[in-house]
Design goal:
α2 (74-80) packs across α5 (150-158). The strands form four sheets. Strands 2-1-13-6-7-10 form a six-stranded mixed β-sheet. A five-stranded mixed β-sheet has the order 4-15-14-11-12, with no helix packed on it. It is 17% helix and 34% strand. It is globular, with a radius of gyration of 16 Å. It contains five helices and 15 strands. It is α+β, with helices and mostly antiparallel strands. The model has no long low-confidence stretch (mean pLDDT 96).
Length: 204
Amino acid sequence: MLRPSKIVCVGRNYRAHAAEMGTDVPKEPLLFLKPPSSIIREGEAIKLHKVSTHIEFEGEIGLVLGHRISHASEEEAMKALTHLIALNDVTARDLQKSDGQWARAKGMDTFLPLGKPAPVPDDLDNVTLVTRVNGEERQRALASDMVFPIPFLLSYISKFITLEAGDIVATGTPAGTRQMFAGDVVEVELVGLSRVTNPVVAGD
C-alpha cells in the first residue's frame, strides 16, 4: 500500500477554478502540504468535522514518485514519475478563508481520499479528470488545462523540497468544486486509469 512521507499540493493551478474562488492565478506555483494522516482509501468515509460548516470536494490528478529527486531538471523529474493516482483534496472552505493558512482546512483526518496508482500513460496531456457527486458530473478537465504543467511542477517543487519515493504531488483542482453533505457519494476518476469513491458522513 502506498505510504507517502508527504503530500505536496498545488493551489489555483486551473484558471477557471481561480476565477470561481475570486482570486488570480499565481505567478509561481502555490504550494502547501497535507499530512499522511489525512489519507483514506476506496470506500472509506469522508467525515464532515463539526469545526467547519462548509467542506468541499476537490478532484485532482495526483503524481506518485518512484525515486528520490532534488533540484531536478524537468527531464530528470519526469523519469521519477512512475504512477498517477486519483485524489480528492477535501477542503474546509470556511477555515481556509479564516485561518490565513491552510493546515487545518486541508489537513484534517479523512481529507485525502486516494485511489489506486496507475502507470503513467504515454499521452500525459490528455489524462482526463472527472469528479461526480451522487453520479452527477461536477468537474472535468485535461492535464493540459493546468496553468503550470506536470514536468514544470515536479522540477519546481524539487528545488525546495526533496521528493522521496512514494511521495505524492497533487496538481490542483479545476472549476466546479462544491460543498458536500452527509449522504453524498463523491467519485474522482482519472478516466481509464484510477478512481476513488467515498461516502460522506457527519463527523465529530
